[in-house]
Amino acid sequence: xxxxxxxxxxxxxxxxxxxxxxxxxxxxxxxxxxxxxxxxxxxxxxxxxxxxxxxxxxxxxxxxxxxxxxxxxxxxxxxxxxxxxxxxxxxxxxxxxxxxxxxxxxxxxxxxxxxxxxxxxxxxxxxxxxxxxxxxxxxxxxxxxxxxxxxxxxxxxxxxxxxxxxxxxxxxxxxxxxxxxxxxxxxxxxxxxxxxxxxxxxxxxxxxxxxxxxxxxxxxxxxxxxxxxxxxxxxxxxxxxxxxxxxxxxxxxxxxxxxxxxxxxxxxxxxxxxxxxxxxxxxxxxxxxxxxxxxxxxxxxxxxxxxxxxxxxxxxxxxxxxxxxxxxxxxxxxxxxxxxxxxxxxxxxxxxxxxxxxxxxxxxxxxxxxxxxxxxxxxxxxxxxxxxxxxxxxxxxxxxxxxxxxxxxxxxxxxxxxxxxxxxxxxxxxxxxxxxxxxxxxxxxxxxxxxxxxxxxxxxxxxxxxxxxxxxxxxxxxxxxxxxxxxxxxxxxxxxxxxxxxxxxxxxxxxxxxxx
Length: 516
Known about the structure:
Layout: E1 2-7, E2 20-25, H1 35-53, H2 56-77, H3 86-109, H4 113-122, H5 124-129, H6 143-150, H7 155-170, H8 172-177, E3 188-197, H9 205-225, H10 235-253, H11 259-290, H12 298-327, E4 347-353, E5 356-368, E6 374-379, H13 387-401, E7 408-411, H14 418-426, E8 430-433, H15 438-447, H16 449-472, H17 482-515
Parallel strand pairs: 3-7, 7-8
Antiparallel strand pairs: 1-2, 3-5, 4-5, 5-6
Helix pairs in contact: 1-17, 2-3, 2-7, 3-6, 3-17, 4-6, 7-17, 9-10, 9-11, 9-12, 10-11, 11-12
């Protein structure tokens, strides 16, 4: 049997530390003949060691306990029955441990909730890593439970979990305990920004009206299916008409002289959207008033009401936007555009790169150490203020994450400005930002050998961004809403740093051989 620590309620509940009891885990079977399995087993065993010895697991469980006790106290204050006592707390902390490990595993293997549940049922190695009960019967979390696990803590508290790992790898004694030969060098930081794309289709103006009609009609069909009906033509006919018009709009755009037919089709789409909007408002009011006549509970009715309200609120502006661009022939400022009816915090991010002139999503800033460890990150809800100003805002966080040992800052020309140069000079930090001025850039390349080495290393930061986005975030995060995307990024950064830290001993042992 293998021993694994599992949380237990403190004898003194007021203490801040979390006592640990030992829990038995099944020994892993011996597997021969598959090198990939042995590599994965070694990797997961090292990540398991890092979680336990770095303080990440302890910090996560402490935060979960504080939230559990706060909710219990809030319920008692409101006169509601609250789950309390050692048994309830022990169950919550066990599920908290599973939440941490299952979500790290899910992010590491890049699978969805359903596939992760299936993999856990198949693999003793994955169940061992996630500390799942595996004695008399195999018990694994279902996909809905895994989704709850992924939202166990908010992004603000996940930041504290990330900080605990950063502090561990920067401390010599703790770094040795997690398998590193020495602490990681945090003195030089490479920064870069990117666009994290949202899971939306290309924001064509007239498609917004089709989306709104489809959502309203499907909501109406749901309400009717649950027993609440009002006079309306066949709802499916509206779907057929709006889809036919959408196909006609797309076909007209490919024909010469198609501007006039496009205007005619858009006027028809506007008429249908107004009619469906009125039907949607009537059904919305009927459901809000007479929901008790259906077989829906009030929370279930609230879900449908929010969905309808979201579309009703934006449909007039979506029609105006399409009218301005197609009939009026006028541009709509990016700040005023509706890019999606369902993702309100998405922005037009101008990249001016090959294959990506513009992208639609949220700006993401990353700061990494020389070893590739991500020290700091921020997914921005609002539009990016520009790389230079963004760096000024995040500088204090980056310096704190480095343990106040920051000696150099490297980035591309977007981060260079008079303000950033003054800040780095005042902080006595080496300015490795690529100058915007070609003359200054040529002078630095000619006279500063350290700058040339830093610029050569900066290409690896592009690769780090690609790894985080394409491997740990799956390319386009499927989380809906900015808050959920922000949380998914936090889990991706945590898993990336665990993965990187677990592999560093291998990488450092292989470096001399590769160099030779």
